[in-house]
Structure formats: structure tokens, C-alpha cells
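A sample follows:
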Amino acid sequence: MSETIVFIYDEPGYMVQTIKHNIEEAGFDVIDINSDLTEIERHQFASDIIVYCLGNVEIGSRRVLKCLNGMCLEYRKTLCMIGESNSLRRAKEACDDGIITVSYKRPLDVRKFISDLKIMVGTRIEYARKKSILLVDDDYDFLQIAYTWFDGVYNVDFVNSAKEAMKYLSEKKPDLILLDHEMPKMNGYEFMSEIRKSWKTSDIPVIFLTGKDDKESVIQILEKKPDGYLLKSTPKDQLLESIDDFFANHILKIQ
């Protein structure tokens, strides 16, 4: 394997050296950069995959994040973040939606990280591909709102009934279906049960996006084993983050 990884870190130390050593042991060439913007820009075309090991997200690392944000937006890089929970949260707040491909909390499971890294090299085209989402909901006002949230980040289509969704799936295959629970004639989990009967649609991930948050409804839906469950009341940024994380993890699972 002769792939190159750009490895950026805020604070040199034993952990950083251990991660770098393991990346090299896995057969990758490593360009390591200690938060130097000039060096980051000089090596911006060296690799499609960037690993950033965060320290505390202060002024220096915010400058790095701003640089990486622009670079990833323009060149569709795969960006992996490693850090403490608070640092990762602040990093996501500082970046545009969808920029961070996958994040790893410390303490790092190095074996899983290296395994994921190998998969990411093999699937970087899939990571960079703009994903498609089908919204299924009988609430037209919510469809309009959700469409404006997702459009631009993803290719988005929407229909207002299970019947229309079935017709859509006869012609197209989205990467993800975001599905309401309460719809007339055929509700959400009845629709999900139907598409899972067909080999043509059984592998399409389904996440429920619904206003139903009572315990009975949640249990009833989760018994059908969807790929996720999100509430319509979820703030926009958290909702987009959940979808971004789903796609990143889903790609790793199917390899």
C-alpha cells in the first residue's frame, strides 16, 4: 500500500507518536504537520484523507479548522478527527455541516481506527459522493422546511405518501429514506415492512423522522428495527450531524 495520509496534530506527545507509528505500520506514507497553516496548504493535494488530532480548540486550532473547512469544501477531502468529547463538539461547531467525515473520541481504539482508515482509503470516492435522501411525510409544511435544511448538503427528493414513495422507488434508489410514522392509508413502519420484502429495496437504510416521542410509539417503531430514530423537534444542526454520522458509519459497516 503506497497511499499517503496527511496527519495534523495540535500537541506533540506520546499519543500523537503512537498514532503516527500505527498508521505507518499499516503501510501508509505519513506527512505529519504540527498545526502549521503554511505546511497544511503546501500539502493540500498530497492526499484525499486528512487525520486531525485535536488538542484544546483554542485560537491556533480554530485557524487550522477554518483552513481545513475550506479545503474540504473545495476538494471533497475525507476528514477524520480525533479528540476529547468537548474538543470534537467545538470542532464540529466551527466547521460546515458534513465536513467532518468521521470522529473518534479519546482514548482512541487504535485497532479500529487503523481498520477504518484502510476502508476509507478504499472507499474515499464513496465518501466524497454526494448522497441522496428521500423524505417521506404527509406534512407538506414540514417537507418544505426539511428540504431547505438538507438541500445543498445532499441530493434531496420528497413525497407526501407511502404510495408515492413506492412509485419513486420503482425508478430510483436513494442512499437513505427519512420516514414519518403517522401517514394515512399506510403508516411508516408498514411502508418500511413493504420495502424490506423486495430485494430491490430491502437494503435501503430507513431512519424514522417523526414527531412521535411517547414511549409506546418509540417502542413500537424500534421493534421494527429501523436504521435510526430522530425527532422532528431536533435542532437543524444536530439533525444534520446525526445524518452525517450515519452515512460515515454506514459506509464502514457495509465494507
User: Anything to note?
Assistant: The radius of gyration is 20 Å. The chain has a mean pLDDT of 87. The first helix runs from residue 14 to 25.
